[in-house]
Design brief:
- There is one protein chain.
- The strands form three sheets. A two-stranded antiparallel ribbon has the order 1-2. A two-stranded antiparallel sheet has the order 3-4. A two-stranded antiparallel sheet has the order 5-6.
- With 333 residues, it is mainly alpha-helical.
- The chain has eleven helices and six strands.
């Protein structure tokens, strides 16, 4: 198992360094009511989307392989990856007019697998464990909620079928609740709202997952701009709360002055400094550029420029030394 971990992480290192040469194609508007391309222009090749994507089930739904430190789990459904693939297919439809059949199968999967609760609305559970966060039960994710909303709203606009819109509206509700209440939010009571990619027993605060969560909320704002419904105002408030929380927490907790922390996990014994990899740092700069286009908030553009300036050879070397120590502390090496 130890050799497997080392081999896996060495492959990650090579891939991470290659990320320096890969541009991230962003979609900077116009952001109209009709949802078109997703904000990052994913391409539908598995190898370029997510290295954990493995194959499809008999219905054409993507399956993930487990992460290296997860034992006893085979191929599984991972809503975040499934939504990403759906949005890549959607972008392919917009770009080339290709069939929406694969996209529609995934939209139907989101419809069929949603858990609907009277209070918490609709949500999707991921069943694969996340040992680094001591998360062994099926877990909710703001990131998965965002993916579901983005897919369902595009399906609604494409087909005119209101059941997809209704489910997307229910998927807003978990953002209103703290993880202690079964939701996907933390820090709202402190005015530093953060949406959890991994809704564990304590906050994990993964940075890129929070930002991706905002994209689904923005999709809902766009798609309902002229409908005059209460959920539009709800999505707008959740979105701007999350933007303000991001700006506060970037300044107070994530920025190390030369690099960014990947997360801010409250688990006892979790490393204080678990830095982003190169790939994640580049992703976050792209996400901030998109958020600036969404909001026209100059603070986001300043953060985009500051973080982009951190991509220097001596900073990268320093990051890898720190990342190695964090992975050792988490028993991932």
């Amino acid at each position: 198992m130890q050799l497997k971990k080392v081999t896996f992480m060495m492959g990650k290192l090579v891939g991470d360094l290659q990320a320096l040469l890969r541009p991230i194609p962003v979609v900077l508007g116009p952001y109209e009511e009709q949802l078109g391309l997703y904000y990052i222009d994913f391409v539908p090749e598995f190898s370029k989307l997510n290295k954990l994507l493995h194959s499809f089930d008999s219905e054409g739904i993507p399956l993930n392989r487990p992460y290296v430190d997860v034992e006893g789990v085979g191929l599984h459904y991972y809503p975040i990856s499934i939504g990403q693939y759906a949005l890549a297919l959607w972008n392919n439809y917009i770009h080339r007019g290709e069939s929406t059949d694969g996209f529609m199968r995934i939209a139907q999967w989101f419809e069929k697998t949603a858990v609907v609760d009277e209070i918490l609305g609709a949500y999707w559970l991921t069943e694969v464990p996340k040992p680094e966060y001591r998360l062994y039960r099926p877990w909710k994710s703001a990131f998965a909620q965002s993916r579901g909303i983005s897919v369902l709203l595009r399906t609604w606009q494409h087909t005119g079928r209101d059941e997809y819109f209704h489910l997307a509206s229910l998927a807003l509700r978990p953002f209103l609740y703290d993880i202690s209440e079964g939701g996907v939010s933390v820090d709202r009571a402190r005015g530093k709202t953060f949406y959890e990619e991994y809704a564990a027993d304590v906050p994990t605060r993964v940075l890129d997952g929070h930002i991706f969560s905002l994209f689904g909320l923005f999709d809902y704002m766009r798609a309902t701009r002229t409908l005059g419904i209460s959920e539009h105002a709800q999505a707008r408030d959740l979105f701007y709360e999350g933007v303000e929380g991001l700006l506060i927490q970037l300044e107070e907790h994530y920025d190390m002055g030369w690099w960014l922390r990947y997360n801010r996990c409250a688990l006892e014994g979790y490393p204080n400094d678990d830095p982003c990899t190169v790939g994640y740092l580049k992703l976050i700069t792209a996400q901030l550029r998109i958020l600036h286009a969404m909001t026209d908030d100059e603070r986001l553009l300043r953060w985009h420029r500051r973080i982009k300036s951190y991509l220097r050879p001596h900073h990268i070397l320093k990051m890898y030394v720190m990342k190695y120590k964090a992975l050792k502390a988490l028993n991932r090496l």
